[in-house]
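[09:14] KT: can someone run the structure on this one? pasting the chain below
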Amino acid sequence: MSQLRDQLRQMVAVLEDERQALAGLDLDGIVGASQGKTTLCDVLAEADAAQVDEECRGLLEAARRLNEVNRQVRNLIAANVSARLDALTGSASLYRASPAYAYAGAR
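[09:31] RB: done, structure tokens below
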């Protein structure tokens, strides 16, 4: 059970690092956090649900909240970039994928 707690603490730490990287627009930090989250998700996928005690539930909830905040920050950054590109080009459609590209990307 302590191993699960440690892994959850690591996830919270990685999510906090990701938030700092997003705030600083630190691409290396963002990529590193993404890789860390993926690795920890793979490890946590193997965890036994019976091992989840009250402390683990608290860590899981903290991780869930941090991940949601980070997702919202990423979306705001992406929306800001899109708005700036649209303003520079005078056209919102210039950077949108044509139907052929959209179809290819979905495959």
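[09:33] KT: thanks! The chain has a mean pLDDT of 88.
[09:34] RB: yep, looked fine to me
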